[in-house]
Amino acid sequence: MFDNIVAISSGGQVNQAISIIRLTGPDVFQIVKKFYTGKVGKDKQITYGWIKNGNELVDEVLVMWFEGKNNFIGENTVEINAHGGIVNTQLILELALANGARMAEPGEFSRRAFLNGKMDLIKAEAINDLIHAKNRFQTKMAIKKFDGKTSEFINKIINQLLILIGQIEVNIDYPEYDDVEQLKENQLLLELKKIKDELHTTIELSENSRIIYQGIKLAIVGLPNAGKSSLLNAFLNEEKAIVTAEAGTTRDVVEGNFVLGGLPFLIKDTAGIRDANNEAEKIGINRSLKQIDESDIIIHLIDGTNVWNNYDEQIKYRSKNKKYIQVINKADLLNEKEKGKIYISAKNNDLESLEKEIIKIYQNIDLNNEQIINNTRQLSLIKSSFIAIENAILAIENGFTADVVIIDLRKAWEDLVNITGKADNEQLLDSMFKNFCLGK
C-alpha cells in the first residue's frame, strides 16, 4: 500500500496570491485533521477553516477533499489552498510532515496517478511537457495529448498486433482447435504492411513536428556586408551582433531565439563567405558552411546593390537539400525590383515579405494529428517497433515460418506497449483466450 506524501504544488519559493499544498495517501484525511480546524469534507467538497500549530494560528484556508479513486491521482487526496506567502506555506508543509506524511519525490503524484491507472505514460509525459513549455506551440502540442487520441491510435496498433500474435500462438500451440483459422503467410504479410505504413506515417509526421517543437534552426548565410548581422538583430529586436561598414566583422556564429507566427526559431548569423587570408576568418567561414548542413532553413542573403557571384552559387548549391529562401537585402537603396523575388531592408526592420515566406513553410502541418509524437522516448520506441515490423515482413518474404516471425512481432508489440505503460506478457495470454475462446 502507498504511504502518505505531501508537497507544495504551486511555486513554493516565491510570494504569490495563493499557494497549494497537496497530500495523497491512505491516511491524509486524518493527518490534515490534526492541524486543521474546519470539518473534513466529503468527496469533491471544499471546506473552510484555519491551520493551527498547537494554539498558534498559521493561516486561514480552503481545503479540497478527494475521497477514494475517482480523482486525478486515484487515491485519497487533500489540497490545502492557503495564502501565498513563503513562510506560512512552508509552515503548513512542516505540519503535514510532522503529523505522518513524508516529502513527495519529484513527479511522484503523477507517478501514482499512472500506477493507479488514472493516466498512461503519454499523458504523464504530456503534463511534464506542458509545465516546461516555452512557447504557444509547445503548449498546444502538450495539451493535445490530454484528449487521449494519441493513446487510442497507439492502442489500436497494439491490439492489431495482439490479434496477429495470438492467432499465430494458437496455430502453433493448439493445432487441434480446428475452429481457429490458420493464418496464411500472404494474409499476415498484408496486415503487417498496413501496420508498417501507419508507423512510417507517424515517424514522418513526428520528425517534421519535432523540428518545430525543439526550435526551427535558421541560418543566415551570404557574402560579407550583405547585412546578415543587421538581419539577426532585426529578428531578435536587439543589438546582439556587431554591425559595421567593414567587411568580415563576424568571425564566429552568433545566435539567438525568437518566435514568429507562434513558432520557435533558433537563428544563427554566420561569417561572410569569401576568400580570406586571416586564419580566424577562415575558421568562421568553415563554420558558416557547417551551419548550412545543420540548419532547417537557409536564408541566403544577397546585397541588392551588388551582382551575383560564384560564392552565391556555392551557397545555393550547398543548400540544395534544405528549405532555401533567397532574400535580397537593402531594398531601400534599389530603384527596380524583380517580380517574384523577396526584398527586405534589414537596416530599417522591413522584414514582412521574408517573415511570410518563413511561416508559409510550416503552415500546412496539422498540429492536431493524433499520430504526431513529439516526445523523444516515445518516438524512439515507435522507430524500434517499425524496424521490428520491417524485419518480420522480410522474414516472411524470405520463407521463414510463423514461429520465427513471431519473435519480431513480440518485439514490435512490446515497444508500442512501453509507450503507454509497461509490457506484460499476460496481455498476450488474455488476448488468446478472449479472441479464440480457448479453454472455456
TrEMBL record:
Q: Which cofactor does it need?
A: K(+)
Output the SUPFAM superfamilies linked to this UniProt entry: P-loop containing nucleoside triphosphate hydrolases, TrmE connector domain
Q: Which CDD domains did the record assign?
A: trmE, TrmE_N
According to its UniProt record, where is this protein mainly located? Answer: cytoplasm
Might you give the EC number(s) for this enzyme? 3.6.-.-
Top-level EC class: hydrolase
Coiled coil ranges: 344-371
Q: Which UniProt keywords apply?
A: Coiled coil, Cytoplasm, GTP-binding, Hydrolase, Magnesium, Metal-binding, Nucleotide-binding, Potassium, tRNA processing
Query: Which residues does GTP bind?
Result: 225-230, 244-250, 269-272, 329-332
Q: Which residues bind (6S)-5-formyl-5,6,7,8-tetrahydrofolate?
A: 22, 79, 118, 440
**InterPro entries under this entry?**
G_TrmE, GTP-bd, GTP-bd_TrmE_N, GTPase_MnmE, MnmE_dom2, MnmE_helical, P-loop_NTPase, Small_GTP-bd
> Which PANTHER family is this protein grouped with?
TRNA MODIFICATION GTPASE GTPBP3 (PTHR42714), TRNA MODIFICATION GTPASE GTPBP3, MITOCHONDRIAL (PTHR42714:SF2)
Name of the featured protein: tRNA modification GTPase MnmE
